[in-house]
Design a protein that fits this description.
GO terms for molecular function: acyltransferase activity, transferring groups other than amino-acyl groups. Pfam families: Acetyltransf_1. Keywords: Acyltransferase, Transferase. This is Diamine N-acetyltransferase. By secondary structure, the chain is of the alpha+beta class. It has one domain: Gcn5-related N-acetyltransferase (GNAT) (Aminopeptidase, 3-Layer(aba) Sandwich), CATH 3.40.630.30. The chain is built from four helices and seven strands.
């Protein structure tokens, strides 16, 4: 199931408030930080090489994605790490998250990477089933209490 017209856009003064207004379900708050908190984390940790975009479906902002893009140092040095994926509660379960991951995997592969990493905090309602269906597998690493996952990217 694909969601037509899903694309990534830079966050600008024109769309920042609309993107910051995106919300997840209450039961997901322990797993995903808000867009505002994510943007603050990105600004506070330039060494993580944050890369982020608004997720749009047509002309409507529906989500947010942020990566640590091959940072020069730290626990994920030289690796691409999916730091945040948020789809607004009104747009979940429509294939948008899957489409965003597909696009992100293509961008990371085009950058020469062989893998995309992410992590999640275990608990009731955790995102592991979503990531598992997409093809992520546990690496055996734990980072700050979160289980690290790897998606192997085939060379094209």
């Amino acid at each position: 199931m694909t969601s037509p017209g899903v694309h990534l856009r830079e966050i600008t003064d024109a769309n920042r408030d609309a993107v910051r207004a995106l919300r997840i379900r209450r039961d997901q708050k322990q797993f995903v930080a808000s867009v505002s908190k994510s943007l603050k984390q990105a600004a506070a940790t330039p060494e993580a090489n944050p890369w982020y975009r608004a997720v749009y479906r047509g002309d409507e902002p529906v989500g947010f994605v942020m990566l640590s893009w091959s940072p020069p140092a730290g626990p994920f040095e030289g690796r691409h790490f999916l730091w945040r994926l948020l789809i607004d509660k009104r747009y979940q379960r429509r294939g948008i998250g899957r489409e965003v991951l597909t696009q992100i995997a293509e961008l990371v592969r085009a950058d020469g990477a062989a893998e995309l990493l992410t992590s999640y905090e275990p608990g009731e309602g955790e995102p592991w089933p979503f990531y598992r269906r997409f093809g992520f597998r546990p690496t055996g690493e734990i980072d700050d209490g979160e289980i690290v996952l790897r998606l192997r990217l085939s060379a094209r």
